[in-house]
Amino acid sequence: GQSLEQPSEVTAVEGAIVQINCTYQTSGFYGLSWYQQHDGGAPTFLSYNALDGLEETGRFSSFLSRSDSYGYLLLQELQMKDSASYFCAVYPTDKLIFGTGTRLQVFP
Amino acid sequence: DTAVSQTPKYLVTQMGNDKSIKCEQNLGHDTMYWYKQDSKKFLKIMFSYNNKELIINETVPNRFSPKSPDKAHLNLHINSLELGDSAVYFCASSQGTGWNTEAFFGQGTRLTVV
Questions:
Q1: Under an 8 A CB cutoff, do B43 and A91 touch?
Q2: How far is CA A74 from each of CA B3, B41, B70, B101, rounded to the nearest angstrom?
Q3: Cβ A45–B58 below 8 Å, yes or no?
């Protein structure tokens, strides 16, 4: 089976840096994706890691270690608008499986 | 122009009723999905269709019946609604079922069964 575990909640202040971890167990693995979902909104794609290492996209970076079955999303220079839920996801075969989700609250 | 659109956005209905949710995507994608998001925000896949063919059915009760008249549409019909069906249902689409697939989601349908 597949499982992706994330912390349920993370809090931080504006301007800070926060890391959201994801540990996974899957029968097949091609890469790790990250999605953002604001309250009342739809999940939207943020990033994808196929290979080990850090991928940077503006204030957001995502890291993958395949040997450790672990990845994280790093959010820098936090803004109030970053308050949302963040999901890691994998695509073992024919379907996108999501992690348990992490709710990020950014305080002024 | 909305990429993936679902209707209705809100649906309140009584137990035992039958209801449908419609989904359309204008991205030209081959694959469409239905996800259920419960009150704890868990996003669970229900069905996956590729070129109108069902490829994934995640042990969903057979009261739920998806229908894909063409690859741009994937509707979800639910019979004999139960209280536990209350959730937000998301339709999504992607280009193929490849390893770096990015899924695009509709705005969700919040279903409340009373």
A1: no
A2: 28, 21, 40, 21
A3: no
Out of A35, A95, A100, the one facing B56 most closely (by C-beta) is: A95
- Sites in chain B below the pLDDT cut of 70: 1, 96-100
Do A94 and B56 make contact, defined as CB atoms within 8 angstroms?
yes
Residue A105 is predicted with a pLDDT of 97
Pair B37, B111: CB distance under 8 Å:
no
Indicate the residue of B41, B42, B48 with minimum beta-carbon distance to A94: B48
Residues of chain B in contact with residue A96, where contact means CB-CB under 8 angstroms, are 33, 45, 92, 94, 101, 103
Alpha carbon distance A43, A33 (integer Å): 12
What lies within 8 Å, CB to CB, of A3 at 6+ separation is A24, A25, A26
* Tokens read off for A90: 């994998």
Among B83, B93, B87, B91, which residue's Cα sits nearest to residue B107? Answer: B91
Whether the bond between A43 and the residue before it is cis, its omega within 30 degrees of 0, is no
Q: How far apart are CA B35 and CA B43, in angstroms?
A: 6
Identify the residue with better confidence: B59 or A12.
A12
- Share the mean pLDDT of chain A: 92
